[in-house]
Amino acid sequence: MVERPRVVAVPFPMQGHISPLLQLSYQLAAAGIDITFVNTFRNHERLVGSREVVSKHSSGVITFMGISDGVAAKAFDGGFNESLNASLVASDEMAKPFEELLWKLDGVSCVISDAYLGWAQAVANRFGVPRVALWTSNVAYSLVNYHLPLLVEKGYLGVKDPSSVGFLDNLVTCVPGVEPIYARDLPTVLRYDSGEDPGFANRIRKIQALKHASWVLVNSFEELESAGVESMRRELGTQNYVTVGPLLVEDTGGRKSLWSEDEACLKWLDSQKPGSVLYISFGSIASIAGAQMRSIVKGLGDTRQPFLWAMRKNLLVPDSDYSERSFQEFMGATKAQGQGLIVEWAPQVKVLQHRALGGHLSHCGWNSVLESMAMGVPILGWPCVAEQTMNCKRIAEDWKIGLRFTTDDAKQQLVSDEEVARVIKKLFCEGEGREIKKRAREFSAIVKTAVSPGGSSHRNLERLVQAIKFGRL
Ligand code: UDX
């Protein structure tokens, strides 16, 4: 047995990827494993504020370190596309500095990297240690990525004009382990790739590289996606494709976000009736158009439902359709009515745990979905990008723990303010809403079992800890 094994953890440089790896690291540290957590300098400074920080967690120690990503700060300042591109460039540029850092560290037992950092496999191989990959999204999304060539061959993805008549209504049933899904709900990031696109080839390479990882950890739980887990195990030819989620550490004592959390909103929630508040958040990277912001604002105003809105400064796509002035007027009006509160960044897990919460209007980012599920809070799905469309479909149609907003195709797939009001009312005031709330509570109980001692995710994590400690990865 290795006395105090040391693991080097490296996330893809985005909040939605940093959180689960960080949470996994806290859990490994609590089990007596030392972690060196390597962020890009920019994220390192936002997360822990200085060059090297050590944080102690019962028996293990987490040391935070920063490396260069070679990308200018302003590249991250724009909307969704600019920020995503900057993160993608940064994620490749990190490879060399990461390897240089690795050679300077002593006693490293293994590398745990985000599954998107395909280069981590070659680096770990050269360094002579096993690589564990963390897939921060769900099993179904890993399967869709794995079967990209098949989906392109069948014409469901990689088409030049996905909005062409009938295309989006194709029912996709060919991905083993994934429930039938309409092409319109397939991940947006894949929909526009063409077969010859270098991004597409890159994606296939990264997912294929998972075959060489010693373990693939997935931020999901077996009870939710058991058929998918079996299917992915067959494809990768390994039993070490395991679910360890939800990776949800409620009180780490350390910081989890690149933004500082506005705790004052918890006091405001204390003053609200149980189950009455709608929490609104679009995660860390999505942006929405002015016309859509206007629909939410108007629909929300019409329902008078109390709300807490986590609104990042760059949430709104800069356009002329929704002016700063109309937003300020809305803020003034809701303040006057005492209807809601807006903060830049909320302590989301604590908010979702609060007894005042009744629903979560969410972009359906996977962490947000898991957090709501764990807390038994129903989701009103407003997917924006990536696999969020697919997550939203599963929430509303397969799991029935939420509702989705219907878009008006005649208006370029926009959601109207009437639709916003209709869906909010359905959740808070109608019988169907009560059923959904009941199911959400049932899912919460399943999550709690999965992460408790003896539960599926807990067992898989224990197996991983033993494999690391006994050098048997
Ligand atoms: C992205 C993708 O959207 C997601 O679909 C993919 O699976 C991972 O990367 P992001 O858009 O940031 O992530 O959404 P999400 O996965 O929900 O992660 C956001 C995280 O930020 C959550 O853990 C959430 O709790 C946290 N958050 C968000 C806050 O703590 N406060 C906020 O105000 C908003």
TrEMBL record:
GO terms for molecular function: UDP-glucosyltransferase activity. Its EC number is 2.4.1.-. Keywords: Glycosyltransferase, Transferase. Pfam families: Glyco_transf_N, UDPGT. InterPro entries: Glyco_transf_N, UDP_glucos_trans, UDP_glycos_trans_CS. Residues 7-42 form the Glycosyltransferase N-terminal domain. It comes from the Eukaryota. PANTHER family: GLUCOSYL/GLUCURONOSYL TRANSFERASES, UDP-GLYCOSYLTRANSFERASE 85A1-RELATED. Belongs to the UDP-glycosyltransferase family. This is Glycosyltransferase. The lineage of its organism: Eukaryota, Viridiplantae, Streptophyta, Embryophyta, Tracheophyta.
